[in-house]
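WARN  no MSA supplied for this record, continuing single-sequence
INFO  ligand: pyridoxal-5'-phosphate
INFO  echoing inputs
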Amino acid sequence: MSTVLSETLDRYQKYVLPTYAPKQLFVRGKGAHLWDDENVEYLDFAAGIAVCNLGHCNERVTKAIVEQAQTLVHTSNLYYNSVMPRLAEKLVRETGFAGRVFFCNSGAEANEGLIKLARKYGNASHRNTIITMEDSFHGRTLATLAATGRAKYRKGFEPEVPGFKQVPFNDFAALEKALTPDVCAVMLEMVQGEGGVLPADPEYLKKVRALCDEKDILMLCDEVQCGMGRLGTRFAFQSFGVVPDAFSMAKAIANGVPMGGFIVREKFANVLTVGTHASTFGGTPLASAAALAVQTAFDEDGVLENCREQGAFLMEKLTEIVKPYSFVKGVRGKGLMIGVVLDRPAGALQSILLKHRLVTLTAGETVLRLVPPLVITRADAEQAIRSIAAGLQEFAASIEEK
Ligand SMILES: *Cc1c(COP(=O)(O)O)cnc(C)c1O
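INFO  complex generated
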């Protein structure tokens, strides 16, 4: 064991709260590749949990960070800064509708903003309940936990924040049934990420949209994971042709510089007024500059096209290589958000793949989740397929031994 590894493990053990259980140290990254303390190279199909969509240490983003860090890092939102509104303009223009942005620092914080928007909107008509989906994930703050469709994350943190109820995803009849007069919003991920890489049915989304219009209910989308190019379109809703009233962003928005935000359609832009919502760091010049560089890369580097192309290639090859294995129930997803669905926990397969130097994630216990940088090359995709083929074989052998 290297000195840096042993010292790192020691410091984690003594000084870091044990809310995570990491298994691997990385010290350097470039593009879709990571290196450990002994200079061993890994192919990264996790991208810092769908964050580093332009790959590690992307030159455009690094340059923007360095230049902005030498100019102005933070002044707070009590003063104008010239970078944040440029980002707001760019993002709103790319949505294709008139709207406004609020910037914050994380996915949970962005979703908290959507929840506050919904409550403020419903307040005048005494409606304060938000319907969310089973198996959804919206964050770890108390309100976003209440919105999250997984009871086990809430356990021990009672009392729960009231005003939320969950219905099964992609089940329109269940949603209609839950629609009591106190409902002010419906909130969902167009592709559920943590819950198991499960895309919404486009017909379902159209019906949800129509229902929200009919009942004057806000349709809120959590694009924290499935947005920012991940599905092959800049925003997730553009892959489904259904426009929400407001949606949240975070993870990949600034390629690893902490940032979140939400976009509200113009019609609802005066719900949150002066003094009703705030964030000290929200939209710092530093984070905004990094996020602008991400948008430039989408415009000029063919990132979205590459995402669609490599995504289609991976989906086709994965579907082929999983065929011999009865423990694989299927491959699903969209763009470069792909899930290999197993009939048992996926953690053991993930560990085998790490030994093959492929970094992956799991989702919802039984799904192996692949969310590589959107800039992977065909060679990267082929290498991943070889590793997964070898990993599946090893996993199958380990099952037989038992
Ligand atoms: C990661 C994630 C969040 C929470 O984001 P944080 O930045 O960790 O607070 C919320 N919603 C979805 C869909 C996510 O994937």
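The CA atoms of residues 120 and 332 lie 37 Å apart.
INFO  checksum written, moving to next record
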